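Putative cupredoxin-like copper-binding protein (Phreatobacter oligotrophus), 151 aa
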Amino acid sequence: MLKTLRMALVATAALLSTATLAHGPDAAGEAGNRAQVNKTIEIRMVEQNGRMLFQPPEITISRGDTVLFIVRNAGELEHEMVIDTLEGNQRHKLQMQANPDMEHADPNAVRVESKKNGEIIWKFTHSGVFEYACLIPGHYEAGMHGRINVR
C-alpha cells in the first residue's frame, strides 16, 4: 500500500514538473530588465459596444527584444494583461474562473484599475505566437485578448 502511494506521488510530481516546464514564464520569455528595454509598446484596454478589447489587437516583435509594455486602462472596469502561450493562458483562465479574485505577482502580468496605468517589462527569448489576455472571468470571452508574433 505504501509503495503504491509512493509511486503515485512520484508520478504526480513528474507530471506537474513537465507541465511547469512546458508552461510558466520562460515559455513566452522572461522578466525583463529596465536597463535593457529596446522597445516600448502602449497597450490600451477599452470597452466598446459590449466588447472588451486590447488596442492594438496584434503586435510583432523580434526574438531577443526587451519590451516595456505601458498598459493603459481606458475602460470603466478593472482589467489585467497576462503574457503567455495560448495554452498557458487557457489554463490560467480556468484557474481564474475558479478563483476570480486571484492576486498576481508574476512578472508577465499586471492588473490595472479603471483609468489607471500599469507596466510589464518582458524579454521575448523564443520565436513563435504568444498571447496577451485579460483572464478576469468573462473578459476573454468578450474579446479581450491579443496576439504577439515573435520573429
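Residues 2-150 form a domain with the Immunoglobulin-like fold (CATH 2.60.40.420). Confidence is low (pLDDT under 50) at residues 2-25. ok done for today
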